[in-house]
Structures are given as structure tokens and as C-alpha cells.
Specification:
Elements lengths: L6 E5 L7 E6 L2 E2 L5 E2 L2 E5 L2 E8 L2 E8 L5 E10 L5 E10 L8 E11 L2 E9 L5 E4 L3
Antiparallel strand pairs: 1-2, 2-5, 3-4, 5-6, 6-7, 7-8, 8-9, 9-10, 10-11, 11-12
């Protein structure tokens, strides 16, 4: 796999409305199933995404380590043949187990280095929906 130069994207999180991040290392397979594995970052925030087949996981948070977020989900294909992912996240301050904050995320994969959140749902918090990629 060839590493690509970083590109801008938009990533939402439950504790914050959204994070503008840079992506390195993702590229599309010939079947239009995207490989999202790589370091996603913006000044102050880092996530490490791992995709194995259709399983997508990540871990990361702000550089000040105020919180850590983990995510586990699946790459899915919609009725029109578009790619996306959905899954669950857990988030809390480092060392607090089990994490107090939990919810679900659903996103559309726009291309090999952009995705758009369609919803972020967490009990007791407003639902975040349709965040555009940049």
C-alpha cells in the first residue's frame, strides 16, 4: 500500500461536535471498498484507525489526554451501493473504566480520505447529525 499525503476531513465525536482532521494512508480498493487504516489528526487531536476487512476500529483523543475514545463498527454498503460505517463508541478520561460515555455513530464514506457523519447518538446528549466533510 502506498501512503498518500495528508488530506483534510471532518470527524464528529460525542464529547465535541466535530473535529477537522487530516488523513494519511487511506486508499480505495478496486471494488470501491475503502481502506481507512491510518493516522487521522488535526492540531491537538490524534486518532488511529484500523480497518480489517469490513471491521473498523479507532482509538485516540486530544493531545492533552483529557479523554480517550474507542470505536468499533462495520463498513456497510447502502441500497445505492455507497459505502459507510456504523458502530459504537466509548469515551472517558484516561484510566476511568468502564467509560461513562457511550453511544452510536453512523457515517457515509465520501472517498478514500473523507467521510460525513450522518448521526452521533449518546443518551442524555443532543443527537448530532449530517456533519459535512471538508
Amino acid at each position: 500500500m502506498r501512503r498518500r499525503s495528508p488530506r483534510r476531513l471532518f470527524l464528529g465525536a460525542a464529547a465535541v461536535a466535530s473535529l477537522a482532521l487530516l488523513l494519511g494512508g487511506a486508499q480505495a480498493a478496486s471494488t470501491a471498498v475503502y481502506n481507512l487504516t491510518g493516522k487521522w489528526q488535526t492540531p491537538g487531536t490524534h486518532l488511529t484507525l484500523t480497518q480489517t476487512g469490513r471491521t473498523l476500529t479507532w482509538i485516540g483523543g486530544p493531545d492533552n489526554k483529557a479523554w480517550i475514545q474507542t470505536f468499533k463498527g462495520a463498513i456497510v454498503t447502502d441500497a445505492e451501493g455507497g459505502q459507510g460505517f456504523r458502530g459504537e463508541f466509548w469515551q472517558d478520561e484516561p484510566g476511568h473504566l468502564p467509560p461513562r460515555y457511550h453511544g452510536t455513530m453512523k457515517a457515509r464514506i465520501d472517498d478514500s480520505c473523507h467521510f460525513t457523519f450522518l448521526s452521533i447518538v449518546q443518551e442524555g446528549q443532543p443527537t448530532i447529525g449530517t456533519s459535512s466533510s471538508s
